[in-house]
Design brief:
257 residues, mainly alpha, transmembrane helix, endopeptidase activity
Length: 257
C-alpha cells in the first residue's frame, strides 16, 4: 500500500508534537475493520480454548478463567491487528520521528500531568452520569474487570487479572485507539471530532452504559496527552496509573465499586 509524501520534517508545529499520519483513507478503513474483527475473533478463540480445557457446563455461569481468557483475547487481538497492519503498510511514519516527540521521561511526566487533571473531571462526570441514568431508570451493570476483581480467584487467576488491568490493557488499548484511530484523525478533522470519535470508540469497547461517559472523558484526556508529547509512552503511563488507582480502590473499598 502506498502512502502520501511525508511532511517536511523541519516544519515543527507549535501546537502539537504529533505530526500527520501519512496513510490513505482506504488504508485506515482496513485498519479499523481489521481492528474490530481481530478483537472479536481472538477473544472468541481464547474463550473457547479456555472453556475446553476447563470442561465447563454450558448451563452454568462462565468461570472466571474463561471470562479472563476472553478479555485477554480481545486485548491481544487489538495489538495483533496493529502490528500486522504496521507490517503491511511498511511505512516509516507509523511512529512520529524522534524530533517530533518527547523523551521517555518527559513523556511519562506528561502522562501523569494529564492524569492529575483528568481524575477530578472524570469523577464529576461519573457522578453526573450515574445520577441521570438512575433517574431514567436504567439498571447498573458492573464491568467485567470490576466483577472479576470482586469475585477473586486462585493466585494464578489474580496474577493474570491484575497484569491485564495494569499492563496488558493500557498497552493494547493505547496502541489501537490513540496510536491508530486518533493518530489518523488528528490533522484531518477538527480537533474536537478527532478527540470525540477516538474516545467514543474507546468507551464503546467497554460495553457498559454507566462507565461510558467517564471513559469518554478519560479517552479525550489520553488523546490530549498523546497530542502534547507525540509519544504513546504518555498514554501508557496515564492509562496504567489510572487502572492501578482504580484497582487499589476496588480492593480497599469494594463497597464503593
Amino acid at each position: 500500500m502506498l502512502a502520501e509524501p511525508l511532511d517536511n520534517p523541519a516544519k515543527k508545529p507549535s501546537h502539537t508534537m504529533l505530526p500527520k499520519w501519512e496513510i490513505r483513507g482506504s488504508d485506515f478503513a482496513i485498519f479499523v475493520a481489521f481492528l474490530f474483527s481481530s478483537m472479536g475473533l481472538v477473544s472468541l478463540i481464547f474463550q473457547n480454548v479456555a472453556a475446553k480445557f476447563l470442561v465447563t457446563d454450558p448451563d452454568a455461569p462462565m468461570p472466571l478463567l474463561v471470562s479472563l481468557s476472553a478479555n485477554l483475547g480481545m486485548q491481544f487481538g487489538m495489538l495483533a491487528s496493529f502490528l500486522v497492519f504496521r507490517k503491511i503498510i511498511q511505512h516509516q511514519d507509523f511512529t512520529p520521528p524522534p524530533h517530533r516527540r518527547y523523551s521517555p521521561t518527559k513523556s511519562m511526566q506528561v502522562g501523569l500531568k494529564w492524569l492529575i487533571m483528568a481524575y477530578p473531571i472524570m469523577i464529576g462526570i461519573n457522578l453526573l452520569s450515574r445520577t441521570i441514568l438512575n433517574l431514567l431508570g436504567f439498571e447498573q451493570v458492573i464491568q467485567d474487570p470490576i466483577r472479576m476483581v470482586q469475585e477473586g480467584g486462585t493466585t494464578f487467576e489474580l496474577f493474570a487479572m491484575y497484569a491485564m488491568i495494569v499492563a496488558v490493557a493500557p498497552i493494547c488499548e493505547e496502541v489501537a485507539f490513540r496510536g491508530g484511530i486518533f493518530r489518523y484523525l488528528h490533522h484531518r478533522v477538527p480537533l474536537y471530532a478527532s478527540l470525540g470519535l477516538s474516545a467514543f470508540f474507546f468507551a464503546l469497547l467497554h460495553a457498559n452504559l454507566y462507565s461510558f461517559a467517564p471513559l469518554m472523558t478519560i479517552g479525550v484526556m489520553l488523546a490530549l496527552a498523546y497530542r502534547e508529547s507525540g509519544s504513546l509512552i504518555s498514554c501508557f503511563t496515564f492509562h496504567a496509573a489510572f487502572n492501578s488507582i482504580n484497582l487499589a480502590l476496588i480492593l480497599l473499598f469494594p463497597e464503593m465499586s
